[in-house]
Amino acid sequence: MASPAPLPVERDPVMLVQAAALLLGRRVVDDAVDAGCHALRASDGYVFQRLVPEPATIQHLADGLGITQQGTSKLVTDLERRGFVERRLDPDDARRRLVALTDKGWLAVETARRVRRRIERDLRRRHGDATVDAALTVLHDLVVSSGGLEAIAGRRLRAPD
Questions:
Q1: Where are the domains of the chain?
Q2: Are 87 and 98 spatial neighbours (Cβ–Cβ below 8 Å)?
Q3: CATH number of 9-153
Q4: Which residues 6+ apart lie within 8 Å of 153 measured at CB?
Q5: Residue 98: beta bridge partners?
Q6: Which of 14, 90, 120, 132 reaches 20 to 30 Å from 102, CA-CA?
């Protein structure tokens, strides 16, 4: 049986969503680097999103990231070396250490939030509220129908293996 013809790139929702995510993610990182978050990587956001609600133990981070404690320790050591996180004693249990965002880590988070708001404003200015609202509704439906809304809301969405 003959293989179906590929969708044209401009009509392929998977290609367009993936490309938009990569390009917009790059814009967020570039703006954060310009704001003083040197050495920031897009993948750092997976750790940051777990530390925004509150500092966390290595085990909690490992569970959220879906990797080993050893792998998480290496990530945290690297983020610590680059100045985005720090380890602190747990005020409730001096035997435990918590990983927390530093001022530089919070600057990266706040810059990313500003860039995302600016992107939305720019889209609304170029295309109008109704079009952007319709596009967001379609994207929301894609996430819900793919079973990803709870993962996003719970800061548990991970990149595919």
A1: 9-153
A2: yes
A3: 1.10.10.10
A4: none
A5: 88
A6: 120
